[in-house]
Amino acid sequence: MASIGEAAPIVRSEAGEAGQGTSAEVVRLERSVAFALDLIATARHERDAAPVQAARRNLAAVYGLTRLRRRQEQSDARPRASA
């Protein structure tokens, strides 16, 4: 039970109704949230690593050049209005 000024954990039972969860449900939920947060932190750390940052910059440059080339090809293919 939660102390004064502290919210009791609310979980959904298998049937879907909200209410006070059993301690096992609360522990499972807390572990699930902790695992998700750890997974997010790991992914952010890997994404910020130097080799990954360099690869992302390289892919961004290639993507930008590809878009520019495609746009130039489309503008070259359009008929020009004669003055």
What does this structure look like?
With 83 residues, the chain is mostly helical. The protein has one domain. Helices cover 65% and strands 7% of the residues. The chain is built from two helices and two strands; from the N terminus they run ββαα. The protein has a two-stranded antiparallel ribbon with strand order 1-2. A hairpin with a 5-residue loop joins β1 and β2 (18-20). The radius of gyration is 27 Å and the shape is elongated.
Question: What is the topological layout?
Answer:
Layout: E1 10-12, E2 18-20, H1 23-48, H2 50-77
Antiparallel strand pairs: 1-2
Helix-and-strand structural type = mainly alpha
Rg measurement, Å: 27 Å
Order of helices and strands: EEHH
Number of strands: 2
Percent range of helical residues: 55-70%
Q: Approximately what portion of the residues adopt beta-strand conformation?
A: 5-15%
> Major beta sheet, specifics?
2 strands, antiparallel
Average residue pLDDT: 82
In short:
The protein is mainly alpha-helical. It has helices at residues 23-48, 50-77; strands at residues 10-12, 18-20. A two-stranded antiparallel sheet has the order 1-2.
